[in-house]
Specification:
alpha/beta; four-stranded mixed beta sheet; about 25% strand
């Protein structure tokens, strides 16, 4: 029996694929949380996300469904239950599980982000990721939370286009990872103003949370 599977590398491009249909954006992501109090304390009181809806889970009324606005109208929600204990131990993810969630912050507020995490007793690591800049912490259930900011002012509606072109620049240069110069070259080629933001120096490695 012949194998008709296409094993070629998938193209990296911002062009719409020839798919069954096209979605228009992220509406919400739902996670299994612990309880109301701990979830609200982290996502509202640490990360600053308004709690915009709280109601029973439509499929399991004994479970509470919490909706938080992440800051741009996109929503993250949690199924929580009274008496369910939080577990801050690091998560061990498997196939199909969530590795981490990344939220954006304005680069000029980096000191505010650091201070807010420290005031709440949240350890964090800080890294220069070459094309962006990130702080990593974890929530009350051990889920890794990345707080990231772009190194350049990139319009939201052109992020995919910019990243796809930066990928091509990386491949042409034979670089293992996308670098700041690839992103800058992509912006220039697309006619988007190259406006670097002021960010501190940070290590480029990886590691566990403090």
């Amino acid at each position: 029996m012949s194998d008709n599977t296409d094993h070629s590398e998938p193209p990296v491009t911002a062009e719409r694929p020839d798919s069954a249909f096209h979605v228009t954006g992220t509406d919400h992501i739902t996670l299994i949380g612990s309880n109301v109090e701990d979830t609200v304390e982290f996502y509202r009181d640490v990360l600053g996300m308004p709690l915009v809806l709280k109601q029973p889970n439509l499929d399991a009324p004994h479970v509470t469904h919490l909706f938080f606005d992440t800051g741009d109208g996109r929503i993250i929600t949690f199924f929580v239950e009274e008496g369910r204990q939080s577990n801050p131990a690091p998560q061990r993810t498997g196939i199909g599980a969530v590795h981490h969630i990344s939220f954006r912050f304005d680069p000029e507020r980096i000191e505010e982000v650091r201070a807010g995490l420290e005031e709440r007793g949240r350890g964090y690591n800080e890294f220069d990721r070459s094309i962006f800049y990130s702080l990593y912490t974890s929530d009350h259930n051990g889920l890794t939370i990345e707080l990231t900011t772009d190194k350049f002012d990139i319009p939201d509606d052109r992020r995919g286009e910019v990243l796809a072109l930066a990928q091509r620049k990386r491949e042409e240069a034979g670089a293992e990872y996308a670098k700041e110069e690839h992103l800058e070259a992509a912006l220039e080629e697309l006619g988007i103003p190259v406006e670097p933001v002021d960010l501190p120096d940070a290590p480029t490695g990886a590691g566990g949370l403090n």
